[in-house]
Amino acid sequence: MKSARMCLAFVVFATLAAYAAAAEGPDVEPGWISLFDGKTFDGWKVGKNAESFKIRDGMIVVNGQVAHLFYMGDVNHHDFKNFALKVDVMTFPHANSGIYFHTKYQEEGFPKFGVESQVNNSHGDPIRTGSLWGIKNVYKVPVKDGVWFTQEIIVRGAHVVVKLDGQPVVDYILPKGADSEYKLPTNNTYLPRGTFALQGHDPGSKVYFKNIRVKALPD
Hints:
By secondary structure, this protein is mainly beta. The protein has one domain: Exo-inulinase, domain 1 (Jelly Rolls, Sandwich), CATH 2.60.120.560. Helix content is about 10%, strand content about 35%. Strands 1, 3, 4, 6, 9, 10, 11 and 15 form an eight-stranded antiparallel sheet that branches. Strands 2-5-14-7-8 form a five-stranded antiparallel sheet, with no helix packed on it. The longest helix is centred in the N-terminal third of the chain and has 22 residues, at about 1-25.
């Protein structure tokens, strides 16, 4: 009986330890740093229409009026030049969203700075997930609505690669380099470095984001 009680106590202790470990935040691959703790918006900032972003079950739920959630935390002083960023994403039918990089905080409206890596598997806009929206567009992708996939953005100088579940969909060299500000074809201003932002596009678009992690690469 004593042995059985000890065994039960061990199982309970191990279960509680597992829950405690999970509460510390999401696990990430060695060499990567998590930007989202799965529980709070600590390190993130959104201006107008903040209610478009909510946290549920360890993920960011995006649904509502136009709004953008900017990373403003301590990792690399929210200032990235060369990096690899991975985000787990799930889209719902007709959803449109995006992941901005080399951007900076803006109180409202669509960002005027930086590049958008599109998130869109079935919205009326034919520019699909992984595109550098308006710069290097793709129209067919290997991911679908209703299924988690990993969107990875890798930037080394003017060289930008976007992968979906490890499969490259964009491999592009920015035409005017990466060391100065200039106008992009989208009329956004390219910044040599900056932070990240998640897009809330419209009330008809619903997207989940989780496991947001980054690896700073040498400048």
